[in-house]
Amino acid sequence: METTFIMIKPDGVQRGLIGDIISRFEKKGFYLKAMKLITVERSFAEKHYADLSSKPFFGGLVEYIVSGPVVAMVWEGKGVVATGRLMIGATKPSESVPGSIRGDYAVEVGRNVIHGSDSVGSAQKEIALWFPEGLSEWRSEMHPWIY
Ligand code: RTP
User: Fold this and answer.
1) Paired strand residues for 108
2) What percent of the chain has pLDDT over 90?
3) What is the superkingdom listed in this entry's lineage (predicted)?
């Protein structure tokens, strides 16, 4: 089953959006596989965003991510990588449609509330980076008619 890495960024935590965001993913029908509230070191944030290290906004992005606790999560479900990105909305809040998380809650690209893996491959890398302890399995205990 497909998994994706979702992070509620420091502004999302500080604005009290954790419950709403988790609720959206749960109600859609995805499963929460792992979750932790953590404040990461600068070197860790630089590793997470290594692909963007040449961008002019890289320094500010790293400052933002280390500025407070984030909620790191792994969500599981059919097509969760692409559907998760749709639920999150476009990177620039000015282009993210109402109904999406950024469309509903953000106005600044530099404070856009949430991150979601952009492909199955980057999801695997990000999950390994954020959850080196591994993930537990609990869905096998569920009734098969619950989806
Ligand atoms: P994310 O990785 O956070 O899910 O965002 P994304 O794929 O939608 O966008 P990406 O291009 O990977 O950019 C990562 C994050 O960098 C910040 N950003 N700031 N100041 C700017 O012009 C600018 N552009 C991007 C955003 O926080 C974006 O989510």
Assistant:
1) 111
2) 91
3) Eukaryota
Cβ-proximal residues to 90 (8 Å cutoff; 6+ apart), any chain: 96, 97, 100, 102, 103
Residue 141 in domain: no
Q: Confirm whether 27 is domain-assigned.
A: yes
The tally of domains found in the chain comes to 1
Q: Provide the whole-model pTM.
A: 0.94
Q: Ligand 1: does its nearest atom lie under 6 Å from the Cβ of 110?
A: yes
Residue 118 Cα: closest atom of ligand 1 = 7
- Note the pLDDT tens digit of each residue in 1-22: 899 999 999 999 999 999 999 9
Asked if residue 109 has its Cβ within 6 Å of ligand 1, the reply is: yes
Domain presence at residue 8? yes
ipTM: 0.91
